[in-house]
Design goal:
Elements lengths: L6 H18 L3 H7 L4 H9 L18 H12 L3 H21 L2 H12 L5 E4 L15 E4 L3 E12 L6 E7 L9 E7 L5 E6 L10 E12 L10 H37 L1 E2 L2 E2 L4 H29 L5 H26 L10 H11 L6 H13 L2
Helix pairs in contact: 1-4, 4-7, 5-6, 5-7, 7-8, 7-9, 7-10, 8-9, 9-10, 9-11
The protein binds acetoacetyl-coenzyme A (CAA).
Length: 380
């Protein structure tokens, strides 16, 4: 497998690196502290084309491949995972789903604005009692002929307060189980659609996570994505690609924490020498570097599978499972290498340790990834 990056991919990677250093790093600690959404930074990422990276140019996107998207996710996540999750959700869960399965009218009306970053979107699958068990949807979308009436609650929705467009998964026909589920486009401001309180989170505190309340919301039929009953498949197919984005986020957190730990170990002295000269520290760095490189290969492979038209459900799940484990482990070790300094906010690694945890939970927990992987390898 050859992961040699093209000139264009190297330029995109550098642009993301520069953006992360110049625009995300200043204020990242304060935003985390205050749970402040990086609105200005998101606007600028839209201008750079980071919010609709894989969308065709005719729909306002950058027309790039998945590997370029992964490179950007990695660089942004080295510095600010709260900002990078906005990029991941908008690209993978909102734009990709709309471009792949939406009608031409939906693409013209919503995708063009989402891909250009004029507005951002949210993906609404999780519910108070339907997290991992995603088929147990309690939110209903009752068919009223020319429209649906939506009732229910969605939980832990990324971009919940800041999005303008919400892709909402809801049950239309209970008898049909997951085949009776639909995906609907709901706009902010539709009557009966309320944004619930913001969550006070352990990590990615700059990300805007809310519950959403639907009380007799009338959604026109033309806002349904795909055929009647396609909603669950829509969610699963969309999440299969979303997991590559989160895997890249996890990779970035790991690589960012490792780079800080490596630098610190060559500056900090103990027992008369830089701590990197102590084998206890050098071996930690060796393990971190090795695991990050292994995670990077899994993430790039999943991205290339998607770009080459291969099935990426298995490779994406493996990439997310492994990269998120490496992110957590690496961030914990980065704090350890920093010692007392690692425990205070100024050195960034404690935030990365808190941010890493969510990569093992959202877009399918590690346990769900193992379900996806085991079913795939055992199916014949
Ligand atoms: N592609 C296409 N179809 C798929 C699919 C995929 N990757 N995975 C499943 N399906 C289809 C199945 O084929 C099946 O359809 P048929 O009956 O027609 O064959 C249907 O979906 C139901 O599948 P299962 O029988 O396998 O369903 P299950 O109840 O056993 O659950 C699961 C499968 C993989 C566990 C699924 O429920 C799942 O992925 N759960 C986790 C949900 C999740 O990731 N939530 C994250 C929330 S979003 C988020 O975090 C976003 C954010 O804001 C950051």
């Amino acid at each position: 497998m050859d992961f040699t990056l093209s000139e264009e991919q190297l330029m995109i990677q550098q642009a993301a690196k520069d953006f992360a250093q110049n625009e995300l790093l200043p204020g990242v600690i304060e935003r985390d502290d205050a749970q402040k959404f990086p609105a200005e930074q998101v606007r600028k990422m839209g201008e750079l084309g980071f919010l609709g990276m894989m969308v065709k140019e005719e729909y306002g996107g950058s027309g790039l491949d998945t590997l370029s998207y992964v490179l950007v996710m990695e660089e942004l996540s080295k510095v600010d995972a709260s900002a990078s999750v906005v990029v991941s959700v908008n690209n993978s869960l909102v734009c990709w789903g709309l471009e792949t399965f939406g009608s031409e009218a939906q693409k013209q009306k919503y995708l063009t604005r989402l891909a250009s970053g004029e507005i951002i979107g949210a993906f609404c699958l999780s519910e108070p009692e339907a997290g991992s068990d995603a088929t147990s949807q309690k939110t209903t979308a009752i068919d009223m002929g020319d429209h649906y009436v939506v009732n229910g609650t969605k939980n832990w929705i990324t971009n919940g307060g800041t999005a303008e467009v919400y892709l909402v998964i809801a049950q239309t026909d209970v008898e049909k189980g997951h085949k009776g589920i639909n995906a609907l486009i709901v706009e902010k401001g539709m009557e009966g659609f309320e944004i619930g309180p913001k969550e006070n989170k352990l990590g990615i505190r700059g990300s805007d996570t809310h519950s959403l309340l639907f009380n007799d919301v009338k959604v026109p039929k033309e806002n349904r994505i795909g055929e009647d009953g396609f909603g669950f498949k829509f969610a699963m197919k969309t999440l299969a690609g979303g997991r590559i984005g989160i895997a890249a986020q996890a990779l970035g957190i790991a690589a960012g924490a490792y780079e800080l730990a490596r630098k610190y170990s060559k500056e900090r002295k103990a027992f008369g020498t830089e701590i990197a000269n102590h084998q206890a520290i050098a071996f930690k760095l060796a393990d971190m570097h090795t695991k990050i490189q292994a995670a990077r290969h899994l993430v790039y492979e999943a991205a290339c599978d998607k770009d080459n038209g291969k099935d990426y459900t298995l490779s994406g799940a493996m990439a997310k499972l492994y990269a998120s484990e490496v992110a957590m482990e690496t961030a914990v070790e980065a704090v350890q290498i920093h010692g007392g300094n690692g425990f205070v906010k100024d050195y960034h690694v404690e935030r990365m340790m808190r941010d890493a945890k969510i990569t093992q939970i959202y877009e399918g927990t590690s346990e769900i990834q193992k379900i996806v992987i085991s079913r795939s390898i055992l199916k014949d």
